[in-house]
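Entry 14: structure prediction run for CC033 protein. Input pasted below.
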Amino acid sequence: TTKFASAVEIPVTFVEKNVKLRGKLHHITEKGLEVEHIPISVPFVTSILRRWQSEGLLLIRLAGVDLAPSGVAWLKQELKPKQMIWFQLLGREDLGLECLVLVNKGRFLSVCLNEEILRRGLGRTARIEGLHHDSRLYWKLHKRLLRAELKALKKSKGIWKEESYSESIRDRIRDNKFVQTLKQFVSWLRSSLSR
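Run finished. Output tokens:
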């Protein structure tokens, strides 16, 4: 029933046990998601506790994901302000929380944003901060994230999109020194003839 206004307020045991919390999304930044924690509500008790609860936003980072700029743009497009999300605590770094972030899509379906970002090729897998490398949970999650990234790689999505043959030829011609010198000569010739 306690409302957490900063990462430091969350008990260490919650992080160690990988507790799931819910919150209301406020902002999406390059650093992560700024979320207002929504505690479990108990009738009567919640209304009394609300008076003493502090205000503040938790900084939540997508664990195991190195976001590309297109990933941040996709999150801003996909997630709505005040949207409810669930986040599973995996670690705490400085003032941010490393989490698996779940978003409800319909009544019985939820999507893990960490995997969805990688599946769309909008980021790369990274080390999951806060979890020990020898833990089963670390390797289970890391394997899930790598599978999602591999799907994007196989389908050439997002950052894994390969240039077409004609695009690569065009870029090579454009960047060729001889072609650049020839363009400069033609522009010089045009300017001198127009005088």
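Notes: The chain has a mean pLDDT of 85. Will compare against the previous run tomorrow.
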